[in-house]
Specification:
Elements lengths: L1 H19 L21 H16 L3 H5 L2 E8 L10 H11 L5 E11 L3 E11 L5 E12 L4 E10 L1 H4 L1
Length: 163
């Protein structure tokens, strides 16, 4: 299981690096059917976490999963199972949302490319029972021509706290 998780993490890291190093096409002619680069700023990308966090507050797993691209990966904080399909993501959130999680960003770094964005840092979730869980996170996003969607989401508890 550890080897499988390490392999998935390596694949996710490679995907993130490739997505965030996409060259800008602002000065190149657009090919038919190709999206031009979506202009975005850090505030717009930061608001995507708020959109996701607000969907958590609805308690509706389908609304949370609607934030994810069809071909995306979720490596969640409190599950050892990578979630690749919408059904797998929904299953995770159906079991996690009863805790009524609410997240706050403690620190972050945002990078923006051509139709891609990367938001990584530390966030803390507070549950209905008052428990606070700090974790590291990475969201990668892709502009699909209409919306920014999550293409990968990794979240892991802080190792110093897990001891």
């Amino acid at each position: 299981m550890l080897q499988k998780s390490a392999a998935l993490l390596a694949v996710s890291a490679a995907f993130i690096l490739a997505a965030c190093s996409t060259p800008h096409k602002h000065d190149q002619p657009q090919q038919q059917g190709e999206l031009s680069c979506k202009k975005a700023d850090k505030a717009e990308i930061a608001a995507l976490f708020d959109r996701w966090n607000d969907s958590l507050k609805t308690g509706d797993a389908k609304k949370v999963v609607a934030n994810y691209a069809p071909r995306s990966i979720l490596l969640p904080t409190v599950s050892n199972t990578p979630r690749l399909t919408a059904a797998e993501k929904e299953d995770y959130f159906v079991h996690w949302l009863p805790n009524r999680p609410s997240g706050v960003i403690n620190s972050r770094k945002i990078r923006i490319g051509c139709n891609t964005a990367f938001d990584a840092g530390i966030y803390t979730f507070t549950y209905a029972n008052g428990k606070k869980v700090p974790a590291r996170y990475t969201f990668t996003y892709e502009w699909d021509g209409q919306n920014w969607l999550i293409t990968s989401h990794h979240s892991s508890g802080m190792p110093e706290i897990a001891k």
